[in-house]
Write a structure and sequence with these properties.
- With about 325 residues, the protein is an alpha+beta fold.
- The protein has helices spanning about 5-15, 20, 35-40, 55-70, 110-115, 125-140, 170-190, 200-205, 210-215, 225-255, 285-295, and strands spanning about 75-85, 85-95, 100-105, 145-155, 165-170, 260-265, 265-270.
- The protein is built from 11 helices and 7 strands.
- Helices cover about 45% and strands about 15% of the residues.
- The longest helix has about 30 residues, at about 225-255.
């Protein structure tokens, strides 16, 4: 095993030994997710796959940093254990003085913007933090009028990209999550199939039960029901429908204004100097030279292009 492999193993092993990682029962961070995954968790299934969990570990590291920053604040409690309707949780931040509970969410900037634009994509995270609050209220540590928050921190952004979702506590949201887990438990006990709420490609990259759960080939025309992923598809399609026509229009205008220097209203235009000529391989001469020697031109294998991503609007039936 190489040095870097040893380092990665130590990081992964440490993460696997944390109390949250060895927790046997599904927690509030999972109840709003895939029901098939929840079934494997409830059944105590052994993980069949070893997905890359660096994103989650990176989030844990930032959580630890925030714990250090906030630990000495008066009226603040960090990493508070909660329990509601038998479901355990770990609230990141509880501020007693303002009757609030906050969960920290680290993500990529693109996800963060998606969550801001489409609140349906936040549902799973909202269920989680309302579940924490319900447990704290049941324990008498917060009132029913408590505030819940999601602090969103894009790992590839700046401080200007931090934002917060907040709303009054809703027992209805917490109970939705608990009822959903109970429904999964009943189906599992009855031997009934459980819905695969995440699409195949997502599961392949992220789920530790992928090989147990999925067939070898991706189903065609699979319905994507997960709110966050469905919102991402919709947003990508919306942007494409704007960007592609605008790109064509921009390409058409470029020859009209290329070479101009000056100011037009609020816009400044200039054109740089053309690049200097430079030497390049004469491929025809190389092929001719090798052919004259009766030899093959040496070739190397290059990776193929990534699969093309296509998102198109489905036309409504007439």
């Amino acid at each position: 095993m190489s040095w870097i492999d040893t380092m990665i193993k130590r990081v992964r092993d440490y993460d696997a030994s944390r109390p949250r990682s060895v927790q046997t029962e599904p927690g509030w961070s999972e109840v709003g997710g895939c029901r098939a995954y929840l079934g494997f968790r409830l059944d105590g299934a052994f993980a069949s796959d070893d997905p890359d969990i660096w994103g989650a570990i990176r989030g844990t590291a930032l959580h630890k940093f925030l714990e250090t920053v906030l630990a000495d604040e008066p009226g603040v409690r960090i990493e508070v254990d909660t329990l509601y309707r038998g479901i355990p949780g770990h609230a990141d931040l509880v501020v007693i003085d303002e009757d609030s509970v906050t969960d920290h969410k680290t993500t990529k900037l693109a996800n963060s913007k998606l969550w801001q634009q489409d609140t349906a994509a936040l549902w799973e995270k909202r269920v989680q933090v309302h579940g924490y609050a319900a447990g704290l209220i049941e324990a008498g540590e917060l009132p029913e009028t408590a505030m819940v928050r999601l602090l969103v921190i894009p790992v590839d952004g700046t401080f200007a990209d931090w934002w917060c979702w907040q709303e009054p506590f809703s027992r209805e949201i917490a109970d939705w999550g608990a009822d959903r887990l109970e429904a999964v438990r009943r189906k599992l006990d009855a031997g009934e199939p459980l819905a695969k709420d995440k699409p195949y490609a997502y599961c392949k990259d992220w789920c530790k039960f992928f090989s147990l759960c999925r067939e070898a080939s991706q189903p065609a025309g699979e319905q994507i029901t997960d709110p966050e992923l469905a919102a991402a598809v919709a947003r990508y399609g919306e942007i494409n429908s704007i960007v592609i026509p605008l790109g064509k229009e921009k390409k058409g205008l470029a020859p009209v204004i290329r070479g101009l220097r000056g100011i037009a209203g609020d816009w400044r235009v200039s054109t740089g100097e053309p690049g200097e000529d430079r030497e390049a391989l004469d491929e025809d001469a190389i092929y001719a030279r090798y052919a004259a020697l009766g030899e093959q031109v040496p070739m190397a294998v290059k990776p193929g292009n990534a699969p093309r991503l296509t998102v198109t609007k489905i036309k409504a039936p007439k």
